[in-house]
Structures are given as C-alpha cells and as structure tokens.
Write a structure and sequence with these properties.
heterodimer, A: 337 residues, alpha/beta, 31% helix, B: alpha+beta, 5-stranded mixed β-sheet, 21% helix, elongated
Amino acid sequence: MLRTSSISRPTRLEDLLSSKEIARLDPLDLASRRVFFGKLKGERRSKKRGHSVEFADHRQYVSGDDIRHIDWNIFGRLDKLFLKLFLEEEDLSLHVVLDASASSDCGEPNKYLFMQRCAMALGYVGLVNLNRVAATVMGGIDAEATSRNSPSQREGAGGWVGSTGSSASAPKPSPIRAVRDLRGRRRVHDLARFICATTPGGTLSFRAAAERIALSRRGKGVMLIFSDFFFKDGYEDGLRLLSGHGYDLILVQVLSPQELEPPIKGDLRLKDIEDADTAEVTISAPLLKRYQANLAAYCNKLREFAHRRDMALLTVKSDTPVDLLVADQLRRLGVLK
Amino acid sequence: MNWSSISFISWPLALGVAAIAVPALILLYLLKLRRRDMEISTTLLWKKAVQDLQANAPLQRLRKNILLLLQLLVLAALIFALAEPVMKSASFTGTKHVILIDRSASMATLDGTESATKPATRLEEAKRQAIEMIDALREPGLLAKATNATGDEAMVIAFDNVSDVRQSFTSDKQKLRAAVESITQSDAPTSMGEAMRLAKAHAPRRIHIENGQSQIIEGLSAGAPISIHLFSDGRVPDADAAKPSPEDSFVFHRIGSEKSGNVGITSVRAQRSYENPNALSFFVGLQNSDPAERTVDVELVVEGSVAAIKQVTMPGATKPVTDGGTGPAAPTPSETESNTGANAPTPSDQQRTTPDLNPGVGGVVFNVEREDALLAEIRLRAPTGSGGDLDRFPTDDRVYVNAGPAKRLRVAIVTNGSLFLSSALAGLPLAELRTIAPAEFNTQVEKGGLPAADVIILDGVLPPAGNVAPAAGLPAGRFLILNAVPQPKSAGPQSPAPITDKGKSGNATIVDWQRTHPALRNVGLDSVFIAESRDVEVRPGSTAVSLARTERGPAIVELASGATRALIVPFDIGATNWPLDVSFVVFLASAIDYLGGESLAGSTDTPQMGSTISERLPAGATDIRLIAPGETTESSLTPLPDGSVVFGPVRRAGVYRLSWKGPPAPGDLAEGPRSTRRVPANLLDAPESVVASKNQIALASRLVNAAGSDAFKGDQRLWPWLLLACAAMLMIEWYVYNKKTHL
C-alpha cells in the first residue's frame, strides 16, 4: 500500500531466484488448459498430426495426400492405401506481462519485486522446457535506456522491443517493453536481464498497453498478467482486448499485505503514488471496515469478470513465497505440470 | 454537591469565551484538519470508502467523533474554570471582613494547640487561623476591573488595650497575610472597644438624603454588611460595650482551652518600714483561676540571687453565688448568633453567658533587711519536687519591683518663721529638718554654697541675684518657693524670661490643676481660696510649666532649668485658707517627695501595661538609651525640657533599662561614665491572669458562640478541579486518538 521504504533492485538472475528455488522449479513444465498449435517443433505433443516419431493413427488415402506418408506395409497386406499418421510435438508460447506502474512499487515486501520473481520463475520453467517465452513490461522506467547508447532493438528472437521512440535520452515511461521468442536454457540470463532492466514508476494506461500487446503478439499460448489491477480507467477494456485471441489468460493480482490490512491511523491526506490524486481521510474503524469491504468487492468483481471471459484469476499477497506460488498455486490452476 | 450554592465570579468572561471558542472548535472540525501526507498505491478504494461513509450519514462524522466530544468537554471545563466558580459555604456572608486579632497578655498562654510536645501560644494559633481564613477569601475575578466586581475584602486590626489597624480593607491576600504575620505578642490587658470603633469607622456611613440635604446616620453603615471575625480567647472584659451593627455578622473564633487554669501574681509592692527604713517588705498578691487547689513556691530574687522562698497554697476557683436575677449583669441576648450555620437559635444559645469562676486568692510577704535601692524579682515556681510546669501562662508568673534606698530626705526651710510650714513639715518622716534664717542663707549663697539639704523651702525669700544661673534665677538645687517669684534673667531679646512677676492682685480660687503631676497627685485644690493672689506670666514653651491656675493665671508653677528645679507657689499661703486644708500637707509631702524623691531611682509604682513611662533622670544626663525586655537593640531617647524621658507605650512585661551618660541618681547603677536605671513593667492584671478561654462572648446586642472549627472553610474554589478534569480528558483524548483505529 505504502511506497516501499527502501528496496534493493534486482540486477541478475541470482537476485531474483535462489539456486534452491531454481532446483525446485527444474522438474516443472508449462501446461495449458487449452492446447495451442506451436510454431516450432517442441517437446509438447500437439493435436496436430505431425511428423514426429510417435505414431498416432491410420486413415484412408484421399487424393491430394502426400504419398510419402502412405503406409506401404499395409498396402502390401491389404492392397489399400492408408496414410500413417504421427503425433506432432510442438512448443508452447509463454507470455509474461508485468505491470511496472508506480503502484506496483509499493508494499512490504515490494509488489513489483514479487512480480519480477514470479515472472522469472515462470520464464525459467518455460525456457528450460524449450518453450517460447515472451515477457512484456507495461509502464515503468527503463533503467538501462540511458546506459545503452545505440538502441539494440533487434527484431526477432531475443530482441528487445522498445515501443516508445528509440532515442530516449532520459528515462521516461513507455507503454510497453517486450522481449520475445526466447528459447532454451541459455536465454535464461537474457530474460533475467530484461526483467531487471525496468524500474517501476509513472502512470500506466492499461488499455493502451493491452492494445499494444494484442497488436504485437505472435502465436498462441499462455499469458500471465501480473498486476494489482488498480487501474483508475478500469481493467475491463484492456482485458477484453487481450482475451479471445488464442491465449490462455491467467491474471495474477498481487496485493501487498498492507493493502489488505492498512496499518495507518490518524488524519491523513492520502496521495496516489501515480497521479498525485489525494483523498483526505480520518481513519476510523468504520472507514477501515468500509475500505476492506470495498477491496473485497473490487477483487470479486475482477474475479467475476475474469470467469466470464474464461480467464483465471489468482489473487496473491506479495509475501507469498515464490516457489509456493509457482509450484503449488499455479500448478493447481493448470499453468504448470 | 449543592448546585445552588455555586456562583461564578467571572461569568461574563466565560460567556464571551464560550461564545467564541465553542463554535470555533466545531468549525475547525468541520473545516480542514491538519492532515499528515501519506503516499499510497492507489486512492481508488479510499475515495470510495469515504464517499460511502459520507453518503450514508452526513452527521456521522460529527456524531461518532469521540475526539470532538472530548475536546468539547475539555473546552467546557476550561470555560467553567474561567468563570471561576465558587461553592459557598454557609459561614461566609458579606464581602467585607474585619479580622480582629487579640494580642493581649492572655494570648501568650501556651495552649493554642492541643499538642503537648510543641505548644503554641494562642496568638500563634490565632494568626494561623486568621491566615487560613484569609486564604479562603474569594479573590476578584479576572475581569474585576472591567466588570467592577470585587472579591472579598478584609481588614486586619490587632488589639490589646489599644488597637491598631494593621491593614485597611483590601483584597490583596499577600498584604493581609503580611499584616497578620506582623502582629506580635503584647503583655497588655484586653480592651475591644477601640478595635470595634476602628472596625466600624472603616465602614462607610449611611447617608440619608432628604430635600437635597445629606445627613450621616450615626451607628448605621452603608454598603454591604461587614462581618467581624474576632480571634481571641474570649477574655474581653469590655465586650459588652461592643455593639456591631444589626446587619453585620460577628464571628467569634475561640482560641485556647476552656480548661486552662492559671496561677499568677496580680499585685506586688515593695515598702520600707516607716520606723526602720532598712526593713524592706514585699507584698505579693496571688490568684488561682484553676478550680483545683494549687500550691506554688514564691521566690524572691534580689539582684540576681534568691533571697527567700515561700510556699503558698491557694484555694481553687469557686463558682460565684447566683441568687436569681442578682447575679453578674450579663447582657440580655437580644439576638443570639450562632456560627454553626443554623439561624434558629437553639435552646443552648439562649442560655446566658456562664459566669466566670471566682479565682482563689492568696498572698505572701517577704521581709528583707536592705539599705540600698534594689531591683527584686518575684517569681512563681511549681513546688519543689513536683516537677513540671507551673501553668501555661508564664507572663504573670514573674514580676519585677524596684525598692528605693533606705534614705530619708533632708529639708531646709529658709523662713522668717512660718507656723504652718514648720508644723506641717514636722509630721513628715524626714531625715533632717533645718530652719535657716534668710540672712544666713544669703550669706551661704553669696559664698557660693547652699545649705546641705535635698530640698530647700524658700518661704518668701529669694537667693541673692548675684551668682545665680541667669536662666533660672536660682542656684543649682531643688527648691520649693512660697510667696515669691524668682526672676530669671532673659538671655536676650529672642528668649524672654520664662516667668514674669506681675505683682499682687485680688482674690482668686484655683480652678484647674494637673491632677496627674506627682506633686499634685491626691491633692484637692478646689476649696482653696486665695485672698491675695499674685499675677504671674508663664511663657509657653519655656522651662516654666503651670501646674495649677486660678481664673487670673498660673497659681503653681514648676521651673526646671538644668540642674535647677523649683516648684513655685507665688501667692502668700498665709493669706489663704489652704494651710487649714488637708491638701496643704499632702501637697507639701508630695512636693518634697517629688523634688527630692526624683533623685531616688525608680518609683515603686509599676507602670500599667500599654501606658507610657515617664522617668526623670538626673541633671546632665545625655545620650539616653533604652533597652526593652527581650530585646538587644538600644533605642535612643530625647529628654523633654523638664529633664524627664518618656517612652512607651510599654507592651512587654519585664525590665526596661534606661542608660545615659552622666551621674547616676541614688538607686541607679553606675558603670563607668554611664548610668543605668531599671524600670520594671509588670502585667499585674487580675482579669487578664484568668486565662481559661470563653466559649461565648457577650456583646452589647447579642451573644456570640464560638464558631466551629470548620467555620471558615470559606468559598470552595472549583476551578482547580475543573482544570484537573480538563487534564484527565486530554489524557483520555490522547489515548483515544492513539487507539482510535481499534475502537
């Protein structure tokens, strides 16, 4: 709830995940409640009949079929043309979206740090299992924008995409920054670097950010959105844009313990960290009750919205252990197996 | 708590503050508070929560705000405190108080408090109670000047047989306390009349205006009624003369114990035997006001060493015989005032004052053989072996008395033969009576000498004018001059002669004389007829003083100049009926005693307490100083033209020491160039020696009972309690503020 008093920003993978946590993540793999067609051959069995070595079925030859797939053994025995069908093994696309607006940079423990660690844990699982991993940061300040002289905005695999002009000399908030098409264990450090590169801050128009993500996305897969979903202009439009385009959408609402149980008292002028909007309150028991009721209603509304749109919603406190979230709660949701 | 007994001193101030502060506080609550800034992730939910609350109940905030409620309570308490509420107690009426504090001798009794280990005198207790009362007076409010409101005012009068106003009406408690503190013990008897007159004099007179003419009504005072507080043991002999105004209240604060008995010396006299002047007798009168029989040791101490001890047993004090209405004339209580708060007189109030016990009396006589003058001390002691104190009133347990030397006067008469004189003087106890012919006298004077005599009576003779002091017209000595007027030469045109002889004139009678003069004491001159008087002119302010006068002018003149002192009777006593009157012999004896006896130190009459003492010092006494008993500092005295010094009024019993540079008179002590005379002053007042305090005091118009011990709680000031409540509420508020989120 309150701005985190002092925080050490992660810079490396080791800052995000300890080796113990990594060890716990190793046996996991991504799953999807829906099965999507992959782009590359992966380790994932696809619904598509493909060219892998695993046999799936036979079917009668119809004209136009590739004669290379005719099972000549059966033709020899039955004198009929059958095609031999194999299971296709594909990769799965994992898209992690982080909300780096200033409101994420709050709470004890810091909500954004928690999001970073979760994203890293999921990204690690995805990369290790040869899935395509993409990460997007909405809002925030690119801490390395000033240090990078020539923008290394390479299109393609592992490239960083800055959406706000390339020659930004001063750190300034951008709607989104993304890294795409990471694959394989050796990109783990690239992902970590990307995740650590952004410092939360500034305001965020969720709708605009969602629009950009929707426009720039490729392929299908699992998309996890980490945010507190406290958007003044509403989360509905943004989520609507993201849903229904072949993504299995999972919303992770991260709340700090202080947001659930505000530890404040007295006569206060509460100042919104993002837009400097103020609310003058005299903290009293009824007011606190009312706040908590409002918070619960807000979360319920979000959950209802998510269910209607076939999204999954997970509300977590920022003090939840990352491995517990990943290995237990997300597994129960079917994101991991 | 009786709410009707609460009044407010500064209610306009409080009202004004309330009118401003209460709306201001509520306004401040409705307006912005000073809020702490705090950054939070989003105000989304808070705004909604606040809106919800406000939408639900517009006055919710005000109603549920316990902080505002507490602050309003604090404010209310402060405003009430500002109004200076006081709770009246029944005993205080009026706003003007006169505090009369008895400082008489009996107030020195050591029974002011019951504590046996640390006895306090009644005066100390009276002062303590008076200060307690002063502390309880209502003070003027904060806006006293603006609203013209005054607090209680008080006046402090200390009295014994004289009264003085220690502090006139003021509401300044500091001054009042200082005035009370400054009262010191006196050994004088009690008389309240003057104090009451003083108290009444300070109340404004009631003025009656009719037809534009204003008239002061005697005995009635204007303004608020005053209440008179008497702090005394009730032993006020003239209380029945005090007449407070009917509307004034009179409160008697009794000090001391009713049961205090006392043994004291009420009279003493030293007298030499007529036949044998060396035999000196001390007559001591004793009094016992204790109901029990008392035995005391009476010690005679002569010049510091015990000369004799005698044991005396005195009967206890007895109840006076009352036979119906012929008892002691107690005043009829026309109005009985009870100070316990009840207005209706109770049967006990209707009782008459209980008459005093008749003290048992006793006496003792000491006989010693002493020739020279001495100062004797007579003191009472508890009987040897009984231990303990004699009584609690030490002042009358010790008296001092002077005894003159066993000396008789030598008198020389210079006369051509006077039957009246010689026969009158023959009867006086004189050491020597010599008759000298005028011629022989003149020869002696011309030789520069005088006959060896203490007093020389010049009967129609004057010393030759050759070698006499120009101022007196007489040589240095003591003279009683009959039928002649000395002619002092005038020292110059600036200072004409003090006495001028105008020659003989017609008959006259003596119309006025100084009855208090030692030479004229007990002398009645009203029957004296002078056939041939002599006109004498006495210059006022000179060394001559007229002691008696006829309708024509001075008849007896005293002339004192340096070493010369003379009493002059200018007319011829042979031409009057005076020698046939007993007053002539008395005058002669007194005059000789006065002229010669003045050389004898210290008269046997001890001065009364509270009066002034006049002592005649030997000629040539300079640098006269006085040490009062119990004091170490000397005060300087200036002699009067006739050579006497006057000091006083004496307030303390004991020995006053007069010292001067010059020769001592017989009986005085000589220490180098200085001489010392000891003048004893004793209480010797039988009524004052009865120290049992009285429970009632009978004024002329009413009978006043002693006030209860809680009589002057005064007005209870409530503002400290309100401030306390204020502080408590502030603490609660603090607690609530800190714990508010959990409420």
